[in-house]
Write a structure and sequence with these properties.
Layout lengths: L9 E12 L9 E12 L5 E8 H7 L5 E11 L1 E7 L13 H13 L5 H17 L2 E7 L4 H13 L3 E5 L1 E2 L13 H15 L5 E7 L7 H13 L4 E6 L3 H10 L6 H7 L7 E5 L5 H10 L2 E4 L1 H6 L7 H7 L2 E4 L11 H14 L10 H7 L2 H6 L17 E4 L5 H7 L5 H11 L5 E6 L2 E2 L9
Parallel strand pairs: 1-4, 5-6, 6-7, 7-9, 8-9, 9-10, 10-11, 11-12, 12-13
Antiparallel strand pairs: 1-2, 2-3, 4-14, 14-15, 15-16
């Protein structure tokens, strides 16, 4: 569809700056325009979208009376997409532990109990969403907690900010502490259906059926979740798989009939299009081929995997299998909200992985996997993660001179790849000069001062 030809555009605006986007929506081939123009407008459905993109000298002649804001020295890029993040773990980020399972026991589970209190959930959610936007993340697939209130609060706060967000009530009816465990499996499934009816598809919100991970759900709960997934094919599914060797041994003990950890979900009807599984470190070839066959996606969480000592995602094997994947922060197991830290960690992991030994991920590929590629993995290609006409108007303005070192290094780069790599390695939240959601600049939150 040629969105620029549609007659119903209103509230047209121009944004003049450098431009970074992916002209071919199926490939990680970035294009950079030194002096570009981005045109946004409100479509008939009320959503603010990108109308046109191109060189300022060419495009400005087509829109001679367009009110345009100049952003000299900045570069417009797609808003980042985070494929896997736990909003209730915001306050356990940076907690020391011996590994995944001790970390869950000592920090995560005790903290998540508090989210039965709506006032507490509101405060954390507001901080979390503002922090995401401060780091340039405009779309995310998020875990809530086992409490339905944690979903309601998150959705209301995301709706208030006009964000495209996806979340779901965590399903866990065993091997979980009191106050977090679903004591009534049938009720937990009814609550999931009620939340889907209440929130999925409202404004820019989506719902994800969310078993925490196989060990904390009974077979009855997993199969019940699979039945809901069959009933609602356009909702997402999210969980964890093959993250940690101790976890994998535990899964084999609990589900001895399953061929693999991933097979537990497959048998329950939880492996399909719009199913996103975090980590996917210890998959075998059969697992990868099965994910490709059904259209499931891996959410690669490199800062978390490094921090918890879980292992290294095998990018080479994933690419050979044709497995779809994207990048994720996994906060609070991950160590930063920053997409730049995540991309940098992914580069490091690819260099260390046994199967990917010596692999040097191209900067364009890293950027793609946190924007347009992640959107494609969520089945949202053409909606978010890019600047193509028709995409929703969520983007960031990058300041390559945000720090003295960035300014010095980027001034000396000779290719787009060098420039992008310098931003990835040296960037942090200061690189995000502005975040734009639905065509409006998000006010920057002042740092908290005690």
């Amino acid at each position: 569809m040629n969105f620029s030809r549609l007659p119903e555009w209103t509230d047209l605006k121009g944004w003049r700056a450098g431009l970074l986007w992916f002209p071919q929506s199926e490939q990680a081939l970035a294009q950079h325009e030194q002096d570009g123009l981005l045109v946004t407008g409100r479509s008939a459905d009320g959503v603010v979208r990108i109308v046109a993109i191109g060189p300022f000298a060419t495009l400005s002649a087509q829109y001679p009376d367009l009110p345009t804001t100049p952003w000299p020295g900045l570069c417009i890029a797609p808003g980042f997409v985070d494929l896997h993040i736990h909003y209730p773990q915001t306050d356990v980020i940076g907690s020391p532990a011996d590994g995944l399972l001790p970390w869950l026991e000592h920090y995560t589970f005790p903290h998540e109990k508090h989210f039965s209190e709506p006032a507490y959930a509101h405060e954390v959610t507001a901080f979390f969403l503002d922090e995401l936007m401060r780091h340039g993340v405009t779309t995310a697939l998020c875990f809530a907690t086992a409490h339905p209130e944690s979903v309601d609060v998150f959705m209301m706060e995301a709706q208030k900010r006009r964000l495209r967000m996806i979340t779901g009530k965590v399903l866990q009816d065993r091997h979980s502490p009191d106050g977090l465990r679903d004591t009534d499996t049938a009720l937990s499934l009814r609550q999931t259906e009620d939340l889907i009816d209440r929130w999925h598809g409202v404004d820019r919100l989506g719902y994800a059926i969310t078993p925490r991970f196989a060990p904390t759900s009974t077979p009855a709960q997993l199969h019940g979740a699979g039945e809901i997934a069959q009933q609602f094919p356009d909702v997402w599914i999210q969980s964890h798989v093959a993250e940690n060797l101790d976890e994998i041994r535990w899964v084999h003990e609990l589900f001895p009939q399953a061929r693999s950890y991933l097979d537990v979900y497959d048998r329950a009807g939880l492996l399909r299009q719009r199913a996103v599984y975090a980590h996917c470190i210890y998959l075998d070839e059969t697992d990868r081929q099965r994910m490709v066959e059904v259209g499931a996606t891996a959410a690669v969480s490199p800062t978390s995997n490094l921090f918890l000592g879980s292992g290294f995602f095998d990018f080479t094997a994933a690419d050979a299998a044709g497995l779809r994947y994207g990048l994720a922060s996994d906060v609070g197991g991950g160590t930063s909200f920053s997409p730049f830290h995540t991309m940098h960690a992914a580069y490091t992991v690819a260099r260390q992985s046994v199967g990917s030994a010596g692999l040097s991920l191209a900067p364009e590929h890293l950027w793609w996997q946190h924007t347009a590629g992640a959107a494609q993995a969520l089945d949202l290609a053409g909606k978010v993660g890019n600047l193509l006409p028709g995409c929703e108007a969520d983007f960031v303005l990058l300041n390559p001179k945000a720090t003295p070192l960035l300014a010095r290094r980027t001034a000396q780069t000779e290719t787009l790849a060098e420039w992008l790599f310098a931003l990835i390695v040296l960037g942090d939240d200061r690189l995000i000069a502005h975040t734009v959601v639905q065509g409006e600049v998000v006010p920057r939150q002042a740092p908290a001062v005690s």
